[in-house]
TrEMBL record:
Protein family per UniProt: Belongs to the PrpD family.
Residue span, MmgE/PrpD N-terminal domain: 18-233
MmgE/PrpD C-terminal domain residues: 258-399
PANTHER family: 2-METHYLCITRATE DEHYDRATASE, 2-METHYLCITRATE DEHYDRATASE-RELATED
Protein name: 2-methylcitrate dehydratase PrpD
Taxonomic path: Bacteria, Bacillati, Actinomycetota, Actinomycetes, Streptosporangiales
Pfam name, any one: MmgE_PrpD_N
Gene Ontology MF term list: lyase activity
């Protein structure tokens, strides 16, 4: 039922939402490339061979479309700065932008076709995750990977102009590649590659379907489909398809002002708020009130890698209180003694919540006790960077750090192809 609904859907997504997410995602990829991230993925992508169909961001290197989708998916997600859908806890841009760019460039799709395909893929990805929040993560699965292959396959199928039946097969084939185990306790950086895996798998699934391979027709809600196989239960199909084409989940995707898990952003805003005007007195203790669903997912105190640091509530709150920012990029010293010492004094407890909002858009409170006996408190009702943030467009442009390429991408629906954006990007990078 779900596969059929999306395979037959003729989407008309709001172009300003799609292009905002593409601009933010492109900025994330360029920042990661500048920081030297994604080198293992780039090495492998180049070695895979194949025709030079698509650009490795920010250019000018070109590889096959599946290889470009893989490495660009890694780049968008590598620094933990890419957009996130709060209800589904998925990163739609990290999966869909690489497919839209790679296949869009390969087939010389128009800007309008790329926007429509990207919007469809992002919407499917968000809806699949939002139907069961946050069950994938509770079971140690990266929802971006598990759900992402379907968004990637739908995006690629649209750009390859597959008919509904072939598109349904592409989704079925993609289901054989759905996964993404999360095990942060043992370290490793493979999670940053999950969107790349999903993007590449989606492109290959669409190509296989076009070549005649078939897949299960009900790969999402069948007896042994995505939900039952990975979660043990199947949500009502209406939870995924209701309001399709009228209600857009992509409108709820947040832009991340911090390079950290979205579920800790409200706490970081509260920490930044309480830090203003704080006297130069040592901090004795820090108490954070956060939504109870988020707490078990962000409790690491002593990260061993930057990737682990991005998912640690204590580490990021300590970084904001000490530095005024939390941006654990590739070169951060996770052994920094002052942050580790303060993080050890951070405790967390369940805080108030709003049942009408997702776990990633909940309020947070940070309370400090100083050595002079005073108590200081910061509270925010919701994190910055969300869909209701009036400064959202300014945040996107400031984060992206791009010039004409961002201007062109923001108007992608009116362009004859993606090429003007890629050309401008190459010129900006010198």
């Amino acid at each position: 039922m779900i596969s059929r609904a999306f395979a037959e859907w003729a989407p008309k997504p709001p172009p300003e939402i799609v292009t905002r997410l593409l601009v933010d995602g492109l900025g994330c990829a360029v920042a990661a490339a500048r920081a030297g991230e994604g080198q293992p993925a780039l090495t492998v992508a180049r070695a895979l061979g194949g025709p030079p169909e698509a650009t490795v961001l920010p250019g000018p290197a070109r590889v096959s479309a599946p290889a470009a989708a893989f490495v660009n998916g890694v780049l968008v997600h590598a620094l933990g700065r890419d957009p996130v859908h709060g209800s589904g806890l998925v990163h739609p841009t990290a999966v869909v932008l690489p497919v839209a760019f790679a296949v869009g460039e390969e087939v010389s799709a128009s800007g309008a076709e790329i926007v429509a395909a990207a919007g469809a893929g992002m919407e499917l990805l968000c809806r699949l995750g939002a139907a069961v929040p946050p069950e994938f993560h509770r079971r140690g699965l990266h929802a971006t990977s598990a759900c992402g292959v379907f968004g990637a396959a739908l995006t690629a199928a649209r750009l390859y102009a597959l008919d509904p039946e072939t598109t349904r097969h592409a989704l079925g084939i993609a289901g054989s590649q759905a996964g993404g185990r999360v095990e942060r306790a043992r370290g490793g950086t493979v999670e940053q590659a999950h969107p790349g895996f999903a993007a590449q798998s989606g492109v290959i699934a669409a190509r296989l379907a076009e070549a005649g391979l078939t897949g299960p027709r009900d790969v999402l809600d069948g007896d042994f489909g995505l939900y039952r196989a990975l979660l043990g239960e199947v949500p009502d199909a209406a939870a995924v398809t209701e309001g399709l084409g009228e209600v857009w989940e992509i409108e709820q995707v947040a832009v991340k002002p911090y390079a950290a898990c979205r579920m800790v952003h409200a706490a970081l805003d509260a920490a930044a708020l309480v830090r203003r005007g704080l006297p130069a007195v040592p901090i004795v203790s820090v108490e954070v009130e956060l939504h109870p669903v988020a707490l078990p997912l962000v409790t690491g105190r002593a990260p061993s890698t930057p990737h682990e640091a991005r998912h640690s509530l204590a580490w990021n709150v300590a970084a904001v209180l000490l530095d005024g920012k939390a941006d654990p990029a590739h070169d951060i010293d996770v052994r920094r003694p002052d942050i580790r010492a303060l993080a050890a004094r951070v405790t967390a407890k369940p805080g108030p919540g709003d049942a009408a909002r997702s776990v990633a858009e909940q309020p947070a409170r940070v309370t400090l006790r100083l050595a002079d006996g005073t108590r200081h408190e910061g509270f925010v009702p919701r994190p910055s960077g969300g869909p209701a943030d009036p400064g959202l467009d300014g945040l996107v442009r400031a984060k992206a750090g791009l010039g004409r390429a961002a201007d062109l991408l923001a108007d992608l629906a009116a362009l004859p192809s993606l090429r003007p954006v890629l050309r401008a990007l190459e010129e900006e990078q010198g």
